[in-house]
Automatic annotation (TrEMBL):
The lineage of its organism: Bacteria, Bacillati, Actinomycetota, Actinomycetes, Bifidobacteriales. This is DUF4391 domain-containing protein. InterPro entries: DUF4391.
Amino acid sequence: MTIASYEGISALSLGLPPTTAIPAAKGELPIRAFTTRPPVSSRLRQHFSTSVDKIVMLALLRPGSIPVTDGAHCHEVLVMAVGLKTPDVPEDVLEHIAAMRSSGMVFITIHQGEEGLVCTPAVRRAQPIKAGHETRHTLHLGRPRPADKARLTLVGDDMDQLWDSLCAQVTLDQTDGRNLDNRLAVRERIDLLKAQEVKLTGDHGRAKTTQNRNTAFAKLQKVRAELKHLSADNQTTEV
């Protein structure tokens, strides 16, 4: 059987079992299928046209194709190649595609870089919510990497664990998906604190009065203390 691929990227090149591979005849999806039902804005339709070259289903991960049991929340994961015309990942396009299916979806976006093909993985993951609240999702982009370094590892006994592991691989470059939402929240907080540290360092250097300088320094010390604490905890968790 000839399997689906895009520029040499396939289920097998990603390290996935042959049993998960989509046949080539069923792999490529027409872009218009994502822009007609439901109808999309003219801006999003244009973004599909200017950003996306092809959309190809590469693999379907589910009980029966891999040795896992069904999950309570995740029942299957579709691995999609999205060939891009430019290096910029169209996040609104990926959001739209992922929202059309209730299953998990791992995107492998592919574009031509200066030294060859570059793959940027992405996932759309539900945010933790309190009972009775509406579910919201966040699109997470992974680290760009050469196409020959793009890999997915199947970790977990059931589909829920597998989905968490795949999300961890995309977002954190780790296969351990345990407690992932808390780890992502910590990383987001660390990124915010780093941005505040840069701003406060500038404010301290530009301060024209002793009072303003002291105020900026006090805030800077507070930010650095929290950043040190979170960074130490994060490293401990990763180890």
